[in-house]
Design goal:
Strand content: under 5%
Structural class: mainly alpha
Number of helices: 14
Largest sheet: none
Number of domains: 2
Radius of gyration: 31 Å
Helix content: 55-70%
Distance between the termini: 68 Å
Length: about 300
């Protein structure tokens, strides 16, 4: 089986990606959206690695045929033309993969072949084929991909990680909630906790506003103490609502939660003393998500 036949046979079993059911990736994904998750299946469908490898192998085979034979110079020149065409094919494949140096190298070699004209021989084509293969291999080695386990993928792709109630009540927390999930998916545990603290800080600021407690450029301890005092004074408010006892219990528990988080997590994270394991980050992620969902039942920005 020739290299060309092998490529045709392989392509018959590779789904095309130009129709409406194409996988949600771009070519190449690091150009338009470097933060999109791409499955191994999508990579295999879109990148057509078999084409590039087959084309490089074919180039080497053709290079060996560019010699004077009993068939005369016409045979050699036909093989040189095939060699030039294969260089053009490799150039296009490398451009599609964003292998800029390899694409440039292939284009330059094609120009050199045309300049050599009838002076092209096997030594030249063999050397070109070997050099281009090395360039492609070296440039491919520079592209690194991070594999995310299936159980973590859902955290990375979740569009509304804390639920619609939280994103509606605290829209400014959506960015850090998403980043916390993504950091957890990528095993960046300390970064996950850092973003969770930022989510809680938004909740604390809204909490403080509810009780007219200053929160701008104020440390957590003073804010929480101010909230706790305001919550204790709720029975003395002549304009208190009929369900003030339920509110007092709710807000008292919420203030206590903030104080616990401040002492156990926030202070260490903010002052670069804390480093957290994946298990600790997961626990905190679940905990903060649940707390923010509860907070969203009574507070909103």
């Amino acid at each position: 089986m020739t290299a060309t036949e092998e490529v045709q046979l392989t392509e018959a079993f590779v789904p095309e990606v130009s129709d409406g059911n194409a996988p949600p990736v771009c070519l190449p994904p690091w150009r338009e959206n470097p933060y999109r998750l791409v499955s191994l299946l999508d990579l295999m469908k879109v990148f057509h690695a078999h084409e590039l490898l087959a084309s490089v192998r074919s180039l080497g085979n053709i290079a060996d045929l560019c010699y004077e034979s009993k068939d005369g110079p016409g045979y050699r020149l036909a093989q040189v033309k095939n060699f030039s065409n294969e260089l053009d094919r490799i150039h296009k494949l490398c451009e599609g993969l964003d292998l800029q140096m390899s694409a440039l190298h292939a284009s330059q070699m094609k120009d050199q072949i045309e300049q050599f004209g009838t002076a092209v021989d096997t030594k030249i084509t063999q050397r070109m084929a070997a050099m281009l293969a090395v360039t492609i291999e070296n440039e491919l080695s520079l592209r690194a991909f991070f594999a995310v386990s299936p159980d973590k993928t859902k955290f990375y792709n979740e569009p509304d990680p804390f639920g619609s109630a939280v994103s509606t009540a605290f829209p400014s927390a959506s960015f850090d909630a998403t980043e916390a999930n993504r950091c957890y998916a990528l095993s960046r545990s300390t970064a996950c906790v850092f973003h969770l603290m930022r989510v809680l800080e938004i909740g604390l600021t809204v909490f403080a506003t509810r009780f007219n407690v200053p929160s701008s450029h104020t440390n957590w301890h003073n804010i929480i103490e101010g909230i706790e005092k305001a919550v204790r004074d709720m029975p003395n408010d002549p304009q208190r609502s009929p369900d003030w006892k339920d509110q007092q219990e709710f807000f008292s528990q919420a203030a206590s939660y903030f104080m616990i988080v401040k002492d156990a997590w926030r202070n260490y994270t903010a002052h670069m003393r804390g480093k957290y394991t994946e298990e600790e980050a997961e626990t905190m992620l679940i905990n903060v998500r649940g707390f923010m969902q509860k907070l969203a039942t009574r507070l909103h920005e």
